[in-house]
Amino acid sequence: MIGRMSRRFNGLFACTLVIAASGCAWFGGSDKKIPALPTLTSANSATLAWSASVGKSGGYLFVPGFGDRLVYAASYKGEVYALAEEGGRTVTRIETKTQLAGGVGVGENLVVVASVKGDVLAFDAAGRSLWKASMAGDILAAPAVVGAKVIVRTADGRIFALNRVDGKRQWVFQRATPSLTLRTNASVVSNRGTLYAGYAGGKVVAIEVEGGKPIWEATISLPRGATELERIADVAGLPVIDDTRVCAAVYQGRTGCVETLSGNVLWSREISSPDGVAVDAKNVYVADTGGTVFALDKTNGATLWKLERLVHRDPGTPILVNGKLLVGDKDGLVHVMSTETGDLIGRLTTDGSRVVSLLANGDRAIAQTDKGGVFAINVK
Fold first, then answer.
1. For residues 200 and 198, what is the distance between their CA atoms, to the nearest angstrom?
2. Which domain range does residue 137 map to?
C-alpha cells in the first residue's frame, strides 16, 4: 500500500510514501525557486487576535475543534487544550496520557481524540475520561461528533459509528480499495442524516448516518497512467457540502461537483489537488498541486480567475472568512485573497512552520502549525 501520513509536506497533508509498510520517499516536492510575494498595496486585511502554544504535531495533522466559546487543540504528546475564543487563555488542559495522532472532535460536553495506538478517547468538557474504544487500525483523521454518534475513519478507509455515551460500536462501513492508495487525514462531513467521504479511485461516497448503508457512489475522476503509481487518483481532502452539491478535488485527477441526492456528476475540471476545496454562493476554490489557486464557477466549473503567486509555496485547503479567501502555506504564512479578483489583500506570519490546518470560526480564522502554534486571525 502507498500511504500518505499526517500532513503532506507538499500541500495540506503530510506526504510520507510508504510501500509495503517499509521504506519511504517524499511524495512530490520541488526545488524550483519560489517567486517573491508582492508587497501589499492596501491595508493588510489580516491581523492577529491572539496566539497560544499547544505542542508540536509530531508529523500528524491536528484540526482544532470548536465548543461553547472555546477552541480545542491537541498535540502529539497527548495534551488537549481548551482555549478561550476571546483572548486564547487556557481554560482547561486535558492530559490523555498517550501520544495522539488525530483530533479534535467536539460535541456537547464531549471531546474526542485518536491515539497513535488506534484508540478513540472521549472526555467531558472538564477533562474527565468517559470511555476508550479500540479501532484496531491507524486513525489519522479527527473523530467527528454527529448527533448521538462519534464517527471515526481509519487510515484504511473504514468508517465506524460509535455510541457517544459509551463508545460501543454501532456499525462499520468499508469498501474495496486499490492495491496502491493514499493514506489521508480526511475524516467525513455530515448533512441531514448523510455522511460524505472521499475515497481512492476519485470516488465520493454518501452513507446513511443512522445505519451506515451506502446511498450512492460518484466518480469525479478516473485513474489514468501506465503504472499503479501513476494511477493513484484519490480524494485526499474533505468533500464540501453546498446545498444541492458536494464538491471535491482528486489528486492526480480532476476537481468537480456532484448532486447530493443522486451522486450524478454536475461537472469536473482537469485540476489536480491533494487538498480540499472551499465553496461560496458563486464559486468553488481550489489550490492545485503546483500551488496555483483557482476560482471556478460553481455551476459549470469555468475558470473565473487564478492566482499563481503562491506557486511552490504549498498552499493548502482554502477557507472563506468574512467574504475573503484564505490559505496557509509551508512557511507558516496565511494569505488572504479577494474572492472577486484573486488579488492578495492580506498576509499574516505565524511561527515559520507549516500551517497544518486552517479553519473558519465565525468571523475569524484559526490556524494550527506544525510547531504547535494556534493563531486566531481577524479578517476584515
1. 7
2. 62-184
Which CATH number fits the domain that encloses residue 135?
Answer: 2.40.128.630
DSSP for 136-188 reads SS---SPPEEETTEEEEE-TTS-EEEEETTT--EEEEE-----SS--------
pLDDT tens digits for 54-84? 999 999 999 999 999 999 999 999 999 999 9
Contacts for 258 with CB less than 8 Å, ≥ 6 apart: 204, 218, 220, 245, 246, 247, 264, 265, 266
Q: How far is CA 12 from the centre of its chain?
A: 7
Strand order in the sheet with 65-67: 65-67, 70-74, 79-84, 90-95
Is residue 67 included in any domain, yes or no?
yes
* Beta-carbon contacts of residue 25 (< 8 Å; ≥ 6 apart): 17
Tally of structural domains, the chain: 1
pLDDT in tens, 134-192: 998 999 999 999 999 999 999 989 999 999 999 999 999 998 877 777 777 889 999 99
Whether residue 347 contacts residue 371, with contact meaning beta carbons closer than 8 Å, is answered with no
Residue 168 lies in a domain: yes
Would you say 326 and 318 are in contact if contact means Cβ atoms under 8 Å apart? yes
Local structure of residue 378 (DSSP, 8 states): E
274 within a domain of the structure (yes/no) = no
Retrieve residue 165's grid coordinates: 455515551
Q: Which residues pair with 376 in a beta bridge?
A: 50, 366
What is the enclosing helix (H) or strand (E) of 285? Answer: strand 283-287
Cβ atoms within 10 Å, residue 299: 13
